[in-house]
Design a protein that fits this description.
CATH topology of the largest domain: Rossmann fold
Number of strands: 23
CATH class of the largest domain: Alpha Beta
Helix content: 10-25%
Strand content: 15-25%
Radius of gyration: 27 Å
Strand order of the largest sheet: 8-7-9-10-6-11-12-13-14
Mean pLDDT: 87
CATH architecture of the largest domain: 3-Layer(aba) Sandwich
Length: 461
């Protein structure tokens, strides 16, 4: 009996090779090739028999000038969970496809079950398709979350054709597929979770959403590196990509929008995991600020932006005597940028840390990617090195360049208003971010260079 021919498919990009390689020749990923059986071509369907076959397709869809198309705002339906609506851009969109990924046990299924129940109680027919759990397990979770008498329709199925038939028969407004890696199609011979199955099933569900107006929410697995499992084309197909972040040992969770065709990207929603499920946090800045009764050395509060939301985050630094090879460690901040800021401090502000261990941490487990944190990081390092705390109610933000200049941060006015609203009284900001009108209760010092910021801080002590 002849052995079936096999190929090797990259689970990162979907590329194929006839033999196994350590590195994918298409995308360069290591150890990403998986042995699969190629799907046999189906007797020529979807192929044109002759070049003249294109002529019959020319008028299938009319060509319309862009200016003649009426632009309409998409209608949104609130999910009943305010923080989730914020990340989605205001609510679920008719015909939209959302992909949400996260580590196992982080709370993806819990959040979606709560959202589906809220949508159903608002009058929308819903369908929850589970491929990883039985109906009894989902029902047990709903009882544990305090969702009594829920009328959310549940389907325990992993075959794509049966799922599509059920959607057509029940006509729901919102469908959750938990998870896309468990769904398979009979048209393919590969196993569920393979690159071909994930790509094909996601494509069918996306086409169904666009043609019928049903909102589809896909739950996706993540790899050990934290990226969404399956081909990268999966993220390109959908309208919105959400990442569930957080430490399973911490009660707080962040839902971050990486891609959103209907709203702002890099928007975040903050949740707290309780016995009754995930609850939205109305004032997330309180999570990222440590509870000091009095100011302590090495602490500086930063106003950062996450999407459209200004957040106050405490930056903590510890400078301690090092050895011949001092350590540079940052949590929540770019370690390479930390090394650059230490060099700028030495050259342009006269603060030498070459023989010191420097540790920097963003409180609350938040990750800060914007350069507006530079000034706060440098002030916290200087405060720890000198052993003197910054004034009470002090905030700072601004990007620092290699020449020692302090550059403006985007939406500086919103940052300052958020700080004043939470009771902060003193701010050191770039000169270009100076507000046109005074902000009540907030004294603002503007600077153009790092050494000016250091002098102002010493004058405030």
């Amino acid at each position: 009996m002849a052995k079936d021919k096999t190929i090797y498919t990259c689970h990162a990009c979907g590329g194929t090779t006839p033999r196994w390689l350590g590195k994918c020749p298409n995308c360069g990923a290591w150890n990403s090739l998986i042995e699969t059986v190629p799907d046999s071509a189906s007797g020529g369907k979807n192929r044109l028999s002759a070049p003249q076959g294109y002529a019959g397709l020319a008028n299938a869809q009319p060509v319309t000038p862009l200016a003649a198309i009426e632009a309409q705002d998409v209608a949104r339906t609130p999910s009943g969970i305010e923080e989730l609506d914020r990340v989605l851009g205001g609510g679920v969109v008719e015909g939209g496809v959302v992909l949400i990924g996260g580590d196992p046990g982080i709370g993806k299924s819990t959040l979606l079950l709560q959202a589906m129940d809220a949508l159903q109680r608002a009058g929308l027919p819903t369908l929850y398709v589970t491929g990883e759990e039985s109906g009894a397990q989902v029902a047990m979770r709903s009882r544990r979350l305090g969702i009594d008498g829920s009328q959310v329709n549940l389907l325990a199925e992993i075959q794509l054709e049966k799922i599509l038939a059920t959607v057509e028969a029940t006509q729901p407004a919102v469908v959750v597929i938990d998870s896309i890696q468990t769904v398979y199609s009979d048209q393919l011979t590969s196993a569920p979770g393979s690159v071909a199955q994930v790509r094909e099933c996601a494509a069918h569900l996306t086409r169904m959403a666009k043609s019928t107006g049903v909102t589809v929410i896909l739950v996706g697995h993540v790899t050990k590196e934290g990226a969404l499992a399956g081909p990268r084309v999966l993220e390109h197909m959908v309208d919105t990509v959400l990442y569930f972040e957080g430490d399973t040992h911490s009660p707080h969770r962040l839902v971050r929008a990486i891609k959103n065709r209907f709203g702002a990207v890099n928007e975040i929603g903050v949740f707290a995991m309780t016995e009754k499920g995930l609850k939205g946090v109305s004032n997330p800045s309180a999570i990222f600020l440590s509870q000091h009764t009095e100011p302590v050395p090495g602490s500086c509060v930063l106003v950062t932006l996450e999407g459209t939301r200004p957040l106050l985050v405490e930056i903590q630094a510890l400078v301690d005597g090092g050895g011949p090879s001092p350590r540079r460690l940052s949590v929540g901040l770019d370690k390479d940028r930390l090394a650059m800021l230490l060099a700028v401090l030495n050259r342009h502000a006269g603060v030498a840390c070459a023989d010191q261990d420097v540790f920097v941490n963003a409180v609350g487990g938040v990750r800060i990617g914007e350069p507006a944190a530079d000034l706060a990081v440098m002030l916290s390092i200087t405060s720890s090195l000198r052993g003197k705390a910054l004034p009470k109610g002090f905030i700072a933000f601004g990007e620092v360049g290699l020449a020692g200049e302090v550059r403006p941060a985007p939406r500086g006015q919103d940052r300052l208003k958020e700080a004043a609203k939470l009771g902060f009284t003193v701010a050191v900001v770039p000169k270009a971010n100076a507000p046109k009108k005074a902000i009540a209760g907030l004294k603002i010092h503007t600077v153009e260079r790092v050494d000016e910021a250091m002098q102002i801080v010493r004058g405030l002590e």
